[in-house]
Specification:
Number of strands of chain B: 0
Shape of chain B: elongated
Distance between the termini of chain A: 13 Å
Oligomer: heterodimer
Radius of gyration of chain A: 24 Å
Largest sheet of chain A: none
Order of helices and strands of chain A: HHHHHHHHHHHHHH
Largest sheet of chain B: none
Helix content of chain A: over 70%
Strand content of chain A: under 5%
Order of helices and strands of chain B: HHHHHHHHHH
Largest interface: A-B, 63 and 56 residues
Shape of chain A: flat
Number of strands of chain A: 0
Chain lengths: 314, 296
C-alpha cells in the first residue's frame, strides 16, 4: 500500500508539472484570446479593455491556478475558431479514440502472447525462424503505412469494408465496430511484433537461470516449467513494454484516424493546430498526457502484483 | 539485449530431461545461432549500404527534376522511363523518393545527434555526481519521458509552426530523456569502479574522468540506443510529414507522398507502395545492423 501511495503521489506531481509546462508554453505564444476574439479590427484600447474583462492582465500564476481548477471541473475554455466550449467539441469524440486504443491493446495482447510463447518454446526451428523473420519486417513498417496497406488489401481488393465509410457509434454500433476493427489491426500489428520479440528473448533468457533447472529436476515437464515458472518472470519486461505502448497506441490512433478518415480526437487536434486554436490543443494534449500517466500508474500497480519484489526494492 | 540464445530443448538436453531422441548438439546450435546473427549483420549492412548510395546519388543528381510536372504522365505506371511511375501531377516518383529519403535521413540523423549529445552530457553529469541535481533532472526527465514523442513534437509545432527545422528541434528534445537515462545508468555502474577511484587518487579531474575514462566504456550501449533512436526518428519524421506538419511541399518527403497517394490508392497503388517500401527498408536495415551488432 505504501508503494502504491508513493506512486500515486509521483503521478499527481507529474500531472501538475505537465499541466504547468503546457500552460506556460501556450501562454508564451504571441496572440491571446482577446486578440483572436477581436481579430483584425482590434485597437490597443479595445484590446486592453477586453483583456481586463477576460482577466488576461492578471499575474501568470493566478491565471494558471484558475485555469487548472476550471480544467479539473471539466471546463476546458472556449474554442477560438468555433466559439463553442472545448468540452462540447472533445467529449463526443473521445469514445472513438479511446475505444480504438483499447481494442488494439487487447488485440496486441491476444495475438502476441501465443506467438511469443510458441516461438520461445520452438526456438531455433524453422517455424520460429520464419516467424521471427516476418516479425523483423513487420516491426519496420510505420503504422500509417500498415493502415494504407490494410485499406488497399482489405478495403479495395477484398472489399471487406468501404474505405472512408466511417459510421458513428451513435448511429450504428455494429457498423462502427466492423469499420474500426481495421484501423485497430494497423495500430496493433507493429506492437505485436515488438512484444513477440521481447517475450521470446525474455523467456529464453529466463530459461537459462538456475531455478529452471531445479524445476526440471523436481520432475516438471517443459510445459509446466514454462507456464508456471518461466513465464511469470519473463512477463515483467513485457508488461513494461505494454504500459508504454498504451500511450503509443493513443497517439498512434491520431495518425491512424487520418489514414482511415475517422473523425476522432486526432482530427480535432490537427485542425486546431492548423487554425492555431490553442485552448483546444491545450485541452487535448493535457487529456492525452493524463491518460498516459494514469496508464503508467496502472502498470506500476500491476507490476507490483506480478512481482512483489519490486516494492521491496523501491 | 540479445545474447547467444539457448533454446528450451538444449536446456532439457543439458540436464537430461525430455531429450525427445535429439542429439546433444549444443555447439552446433550455438554455431548456427552465431551464423544467423552474422547473417543479420550482413543483410543489414547490404540494405543500409544500398540505401546510403541511393541517398548520396539523390543529393547530387536525380533522373528528373522533383518539381517538374508532366501532364502527359499523370499517374503513369512504373516503366523503364519512370522506374516507380508518376504521381498525380506527373512528377517522377523515383526522383522524389530519392530526395525524400535524403530529407528523412538528414532529419533523423540531426534528431539523434541532438538527442544523443544532450543526453550524454545530462546523463554523464547526473550519473557521475548524483545528488540533488540528479534528483531534479531525473524528475524532469520522467515528465518529458511520460510524454509521447510525437505529442511533444505536436506541441512544439503548434507553438513554433511547421517545417523541417522545427521537426528536428522538437524530435531532438523528445529524444533526450531516453539517451540521458541510458547514459546515466552506465555512469552509475562505472563511477564506483576501481579504475575510476585510482584515476581520482592520481589527481585526474572529474571532467577528464567523465569523458576520457568512463564514456568510452559506455559507448557500446550508447551505439545500440543510437541505432534504435535513429529508427524511431525515421518513423516519427515519416509520421509527422504524413500529418502535414513535417517537410513542407513542394519539397519531397516519404511521409507526405504517402498521404497524397491515398486518394489514388486504387488507380495507382505503386504511388503508395514505393515510398512505404523505402521507409521499411531504411528501418529494417538499421534494426538488422543493431541486432547483428549486439552479438558481435
Amino acid at each position: 500500500m505504501k508503494y502504491i501511495g508513493k506512486k500515486l503521489a509521483a503521478m499527481l506531481i507529474t500531472l501538475l508539472c505537465i499541466s504547468f509546462l503546457v500552460y506556460l508554453a501556450f501562454d508564451m505564444i504571441p496572440g491571446d484570446a482577446a486578440l483572436s476574439a477581436l481579430g483584425t479590427d482590434a485597437t490597443p484600447e479595445s484590446l486592453a479593455a477586453l483583456r481586463e474583462q477576460l482577466g488576461l492582465d492578471r499575474p501568470f500564476i493566478e491565471r494558471y491556478l484558475e485555469w487548472l481548477f476550471a480544467f479539473i471541473r471539466g471546463d476546458y475554455g472556449m474554442s477560438y475558431k468555433y466559439h463553442m466550449p472545448v468540452a462540447d467539441m472533445i467529449v463526443p469524440k473521445l469514445p472513438i479514440t479511446v475505444i480504438m486504443a483499447v481494442i488494439s491493446f487487447f488485440m496486441m495482447v491476444v495475438i502476441a502472447l501465443p506467438i511469443g510463447i510458441y516461438t520461445a518454446k520452438h526456438n531455433g526451428r524453422w517455424a520460429d525462424r520464419l516467424i521471427m523473420a516476418v516479425n523483423q519486417v513487420v516491426m519496420a513498417v510505420p503504422h500509417f503505412f500498415m493502415g494504407i496497406l490494410i485499406t488497399y488489401f482489405f478495403g479495395l481488393v477484398l472489399k471487406l469494408f468501404t474505405p472512408g465509410g466511417f459510421v458513428s457509434y451513435e448511429k450504428d454500433v455494429a457498423g462502427f465496430f466492423a469499420y474500426i476493427i481495421f484501423p485497430c489491426i494497423a495500430i496493433a500489428l507493429p506492437k505485436v511484433a515488438m512484444s513477440v520479440k521481447l517475450l521470446r528473448s525474455s523467456c529464453i533468457e529466463e530459461a537459462k537461470k538456475d531455478y529452471v533447472r531445479t524445476a526440471y529436476s523436481k520432475g516438471n515437464d517443459t510445459n509446466k516449467v514454462l507456464y508456471r515458472h518461466v513465464l511469470k518472470n519473463a512477463m515483467i519486461p513485457v508488461i513494461t513494454l505494454w504500459g508504454m505502448t498504451l500511450a503509443d497506441m493513443l497517439v498512434g490512433s491520431i495518425v491512424i484516424e487520418q489514414v482511415f478518415n475517422i473523425p476522432g480526437i486526432g482530427r480535432i487536434l490537427l485542425t486546431s493546430i492548423s487554425y492555431r486554436d490553442y485552448p483546444v490543443v491545450e485541452a487535448i494534449i493535457i487529456l492525452i498526457a493524463f491518460v498516459v500517466i494514469v496508464a503508467n500508474f496502472c502498470v506500476d500497480v500491476i507490476y507490483q502484483l506480478v512481482d512483489p519484489r519490486i516494492s521491496i526494492h523501491e | 539485449m540479445e545474447t547467444v540464445i539457448f533454446d528450451m530443448c538444449i536446456l532439457n538436453a543439458q540436464i537430461g530431461v525430455g531429450m525427445k531422441g535429439k542429439k546433444t548438439v549444443l555447439q552446433n546450435k550455438v554455431f548456427l545461432q552465431k551464423r544467423a546473427y552474422s547473417l543479420n549483420w550482413m543483410a543489414g549492412a547490404c540494405i543500409t549500404g544500398c540505401l546510403l548510395i541511393l541517398i548520396l546519388v539523390g543529393m547530387i543528381h536525380t533522373p528528373y527534376d522533383i518539381t517538374k510536372m508532366d501532364s502527359a504522365a499523370k499517374l503513369a505506371a512504373p516503366s523503364l522511363k519512370h522506374l516507380m511511375g508518376c504521381d498525380n501531377f506527373g512528377r517522377d516518383i523515383f526522383s522524389r523518393v530519392l530526395k525524400g529519403m535524403g530529407n528523412t535521413f538528414v532529419i533523423a540523423l540531426a534528431t539523434v545527434m541532438i538527442g544523443a549529445a544532450s543526453g550524454v552530457v545530462i546523463g554523464a553529469f547526473t550519473g557521475y555526481f548524483g545528488g540533488l541535481l540528479d534528483e531534479v533532472l531525473m524528475r524532469i526527465n520522467d515528465v518529458v519521458f511520460a510524454f509521447p514523442s510525437i505529442l511533444l513534437a505536436l506541441v512544439f509545432v503548434s507553438i513554433f509552426g511547421t517545417g523541417k527545422y522545427n521537426v528536428v528541434a522538437a524530435l531532438g528534445v523528445a529524444f533526450i530523456p531516453s539517451f540521458a537515462r541510458i547514459v546515466r545508468g552506465e555512469f552509475i555502474k562505472y563511477r564506483e569502479m576501481d579504475y575510476v577511484k585510482s584515476a581520482r587518487l592520481q589527481g585526474v579531474s572529474h571532467l577528464r574522468i567523465i569523458f576520457v575514462h568512463i564514456l568510452p566504456n559506455a559507448l557500446p550501449v550508447l551505439l545500440s540506443s543510437v541505432m534504435i533512436g535513429f529508427n524511431n526518428a525515421v518513423l516519427a519524421e515519416a509520421g509527422m510529414s504524413y500529418l502535414g506538419i513535417g517537410v513542407q511541399p513542394p519539397d519531397a518527403s516519404l511521409g507526405s507522398m504517402l498521404s497524397e497517394s491515398q486518394t489514388y490508392l486504387f488507380s495507382a497503388p505503386w504511388y503508395a507502395i514505393f515510398p512505404g517500401l523505402m521507409i521499411i527498408l531504411m528501418v529494417l536495415g538499421f534494426s538488422l545492423l543493431a541486432a547483428g551488432k549486439d552479438t558481435m
